[in-house]
Amino acid sequence: MRSTLVVAFFLMPWAAAAQGCGGEGAADMDSAVGDAAELDALAQDPPLNQLTAEEAAAGWRLLFDGTLEGWRGYRREDVPGGWSVQDGVLAFTPGIGDGTLMTAEQFADFELALEWRIEVGGNSGIFYRATEAERAPYWTGPELQILDNAGHPDGGAPETSAGSNYALHAPAEDVTRPVGEWNQVRIVVRGARVEHWMNGARIVVYDLWTDEWRAMVARTKFAEWPGYGMAPAGHIGLQDHGDPVWYRNVKILVF
To answer: How would you label 160-188 residue by residue, b for 16+ Cβ within 10 Å and e otherwise?
Structure first.
């Protein structure tokens, strides 16, 4: 009996301490879990349309700062009615007013970075080095395809799937995220060399103006337009393909 009391005597302070620590420890753990959740949320939804100090120092600048300043419609001075800013995101809503949105400024050699999101079955695209010499931007500017691969017929052919140089160069792999999630894109253009990057992977590399390029274009619908892909500089455009689409964190580094 005495040994049992001795054990109980020694255990009682430990149990009390454990109970006290348990309360504080639980609070600390709850705080840590909360911090982790906040960090995860921040990673999924980073501050919109801002440059980091490193990007600013390297010469990056915003093409979309949360307003439509610096943007207009193709071959027009105003912004097509379907394009608007929604909660800091550049959005296209069909049925309000159609037309491709393009930068007022033209660019030659650059790296373009942005994020895009599409709805189920949706289609859009990013034009680059597009001029206004023709009736439509795709008559002159190559296009990085924006697409729901699973829900749109174009997803059935690699050369018209998301990330492709539309109808010409298929992506090396499908790295798109599920519909409704944001995808990160980089388009790097230096002289004749063009690279498409998506979600951290380089998926397309090609050279403009070569014999191989001309032969490839001649086998597509673009053969009808001799200026296709030939301009050394041009506008960046976001395509109205009749489907809702969203863009954010649009920035550029000019070489």
So the answer is: bbbbbbbbbbbbeebbbeebeebbebbbb
Phi, psi of 234 (to 5 degrees): 180, -175
Asked if 104 and 31 sit in the same domain, the reply is no
Residue 7 shares a structural domain with residue 57: no
Domain carrying residue 77: 53-254
pLDDT per position in the chain (255 positions), as tens?
Answer: 444 434 343 344 434 444 444 454 444 445 444 555 554 444 456 689 999 999 999 999 999 999 999 999 999 999 999 999 999 999 999 989 889 999 999 999 999 999 999 999 999 999 999 999 999 999 999 999 999 999 999 999 999 999 999 999 999 999 999 999 999 999 999 999 999 999 999 999 999 999 999 999 999 999 999 999 999 999 999 999 999 999 999 999 999
Residues 107 and 176 in one domain: yes
Type and span of the H or E element at 86: strand 83-86
Same domain, 152 and 249: yes
User: Does residue 181 share a domain with residue 110?
Assistant: yes
